[in-house]
């Protein structure tokens, strides 16, 4: 009887641990670590937010900071039915609101917050280009609060779901995974430096992935729908008038344009079809694998591969779109540490010209160093998993080339005939590494099915 009671008590404790995330943290002995990491991650974000932002002091249209502020101005001062309509009071040529309703309502809520403390920052007409000290602080706080309220809990939820099914997960592994996700340098630089709210859509996506892993399909659908409804642009969902690429992005169309002048040789209609065909065809193998042999691990690889496909081949990709494949790569950090390191370093490098224009060189260097330190922190993870297909000599050469290009970009001027030569070389290097990683992750996803067959055969024998 006593043994049965003991078993029942143990079973009840396990159920509590499985159902209560906070108790799970305490049970694993990492509650204090989680709080410390979260606080440090917030402090890092605050430190980055002290630096310049996109379009700072650069009239007449400034940059993304002004776009977000203007959306708060519009949503707070105008009725809902006029948010997306061009009028004398809502000039869509000046940062017109072209994101879905969830972004609009987010802007409205943030506008309420800013209006309470500093009405001048969101007053209609007169606040254009507003860059007062208090206004900038309030704007930065809207991003910080969004990060803390959406992305941080989503990361916690994912880690809880991911590791609660792994009874032998080490405390150091869990703490390392939390740190590597919350201290993602690319996300911090874009949201808290350049100024955007990617933390909301990415946080909703992480929550959706966690819901999939915990077999809560309706929750996953709800969260992923919110993520799409927050970030997918309306009129710019297919901005064909801008051409197939803009600026220097490390994707297929921009990189190959050095040899193939896509915009000259093909009509926009032809490029639409080419882009659609390339994106769908490169996504297809990953989707077929999940249909054929669905699994939680394969789902994460599928997310990464589809994100790579959209970044590489879709129409009008921005430098910041690399955040999409970075997210599932961070979710796979424990299984694929080298993959995360390599994509993070080259994602940072691919955004280097953009961040230089924003005056974010110092936080760029600081966060790169911080990421390297966190990545190499001692944990129980198996470093032997670090990309066996990569030769250490080759990776060393690539890293040295990246360092040299950083120095050249900062200290030298390109030839007058080729003013964007340095950007093109950076783009080419990053694109080559993204392609290698893309091939690797697609192959790895298909090997998951193969490993299942091997395990089944061993059991039969």
From TrEMBL:
It is a multi-pass membrane protein. The keyword Lipid biosynthesis does not apply. Keywords: Endoplasmic reticulum, Glycosyltransferase, Membrane, Transferase, Transmembrane, Transmembrane helix. GO terms for cellular component: endoplasmic reticulum membrane. The keyword Transferase applies. It comes from the Eukaryota. One of its GO terms (molecular function) is dolichyl pyrophosphate Man9GlcNAc2 alpha-1,3-glucosyltransferase activity. It is found in: Endoplasmic reticulum membrane. The chain crosses the membrane at residues 22-44, 138-162, 174-190, 273-292, 298-317, 361-378, 390-412, 418-440. Its EC number is 2.4.1.-. Signal peptide: none annotated. It holds the Pfam family Alg6_Alg8. Pathway: Protein modification; protein glycosylation. Belongs to the ALG6/ALG8 glucosyltransferase family. This is Alpha-1,3-glucosyltransferase. It comes from Carya illinoinensis. The lineage of its organism: Eukaryota, Viridiplantae, Streptophyta, Embryophyta, Tracheophyta.
């Amino acid at each position: 009887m006593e043994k049965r009671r003991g078993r029942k008590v143990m079973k009840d404790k396990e159920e509590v641990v499985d159902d209560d995330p906070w108790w799970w943290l305490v049970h694993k002995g990492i509650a204090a670590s989680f709080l410390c990491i979260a606080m440090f991650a917030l402090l890092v974000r605050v430190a980055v937010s002290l630096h310049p932002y996109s379009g700072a002091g650069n009239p007449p249209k400034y940059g993304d900071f002004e776009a977000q502020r203007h959306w708060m101005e519009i949503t707070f001062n105008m009725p809902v039915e006029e948010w997306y309509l061009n009028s004398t009071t809502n000039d869509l040529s000046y940062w017109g609101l072209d994101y879905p309703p969830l972004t609009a309502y987010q802007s409205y809520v943030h506008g309420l917050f800013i209006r309470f403390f500093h009405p001048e920052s969101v007053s209609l007409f007169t606040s254009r280009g507003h860059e007062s000290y208090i206004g900038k602080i309030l704007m930065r706080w809207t991003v910080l609060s969004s990060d803390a309220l959406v992305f941080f809990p989503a990361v916690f939820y994912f880690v809880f779901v991911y590791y609660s099914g792994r009874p032998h997960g080490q405390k150091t592994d869990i703490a390392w995974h939390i740190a590597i996700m919350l201290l993602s340098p690319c996300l911090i630089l874009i949201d808290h430096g350049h100024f955007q709210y990617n933390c909301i859509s990415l946080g909703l996506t992480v929550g959706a992935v966690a819901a999939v892993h915990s077999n809560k399909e309706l929750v996953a659908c709800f969260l992923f729908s919110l993520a799409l409804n927050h970030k997918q642009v309306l009129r710019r969902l297919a901005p064909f008038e801008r051409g197939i690429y803009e600026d220097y992005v490390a994707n297929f169309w921009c990189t190959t344009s050095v040899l193939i002048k896509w915009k000259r040789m093909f009509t926009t209609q032809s490029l639409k079809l080419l882009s659609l065909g390339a994106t769908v065809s490169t996504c297809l193998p990953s989707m077929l694998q999940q249909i054929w042999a669905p699994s939680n691990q394969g789902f994460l690889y599928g997310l990464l591969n589809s994100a790579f496909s959209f970044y590489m081949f879709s129409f009008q990709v921005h430098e910041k779109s690399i955040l999409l494949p970075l997210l599932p790569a961070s979710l796979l950090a424990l299984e694929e540490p080298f993959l995360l390191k390599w994509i993070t370093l080259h994602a940072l490098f691919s955004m280097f010209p953009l961040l230089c224009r924003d005056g974010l060189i110092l936080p760029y260097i600081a966060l790169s160093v911080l990421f390297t330190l966190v990545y190499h922190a001692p944990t129980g993870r198996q470093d032997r998993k670090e990309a066996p297909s990569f030769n250490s000599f080759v990776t060393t050469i690539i890293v040295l080339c990246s360092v040299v290009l950083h120095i050249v970009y900062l200290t030298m001027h390109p030839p007058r005939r080729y003013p964007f030569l340095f950007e093109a070389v950076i783009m080419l290097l990053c694109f080559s590494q993204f392609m290698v990683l893309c091939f690797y992750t697609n192959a790895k996803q298909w090997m998951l099915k193969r490993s299942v067959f091997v395990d089944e055969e061993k059991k039969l024998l």
